[in-house]
Design brief:
single chain; 254 residues; mainly alpha; 11 helices; globular
Amino acid sequence: MSSQIERNPIMALRIATEFLTRIPVGEINERHRRPLAASVWIFPVVGALVGLVGGSVYYFSQILGLPPLISAAITVGALYVATGGLHEDGLADVADGFGGGSDRQKKLAIMRDSRTGTYGVAAIFFSLALRVLAIANLSDVSMVITALFVSGALSRASIGLVMVALRVARPDGLSVMAGRPGAGQAFAALGIALVGAIGLLGIAQGAGITAITVATIFFVAVLAKKQIGGQTGDVLGMTAQCVEVVVLLAISAR
């Protein structure tokens, strides 16, 4: 288990942003770079920033007088561009692997295949559609920005918890290169996201949304453990997607 922690918040933010998004952060000196796991604690901050990007797009689309559904679709498209579809790709790979593989090795082989199958296409469709509908159902612009901020923070915080909870499912790949954070880092990330959720939604709803997040993480971890015996980079991406969708749906249903 990696015990390294990137204590420089600026460096941690740059490393996390470089990995989780397509937002340029400038060249990072490799001599000063720690493993990605060392920056897990700041993942929710990056997620919140991505949410603010989406919120800004929704705000300006409303200024232009676009209908809420169209604004929501453009917003989700902006989120996709900002992250390069990183988590959607993981979701699709897991859907294809878990849905199409007959045993652990076949599931892992399918997940590594760069081609997207019918399960993956369906998973991406439902992820995009549910987020668009959830955003369009929110009452006003401020609530959309709040929902995107909170869902972005909690979904990225979920990544570290799965990294801690499950061993890697294969000896190579992104998850191995990233390293494994300490439990303290993962829970610090969740704590940061929880503070943001409570600050914007209030104690009751913020804590409730966080509890829903933890339940979703638990479900994904149990599923991944049963299907492939651990986690991969794709499983981490799927976790973030599932949490983001569930949180947006929960907030829109208030």
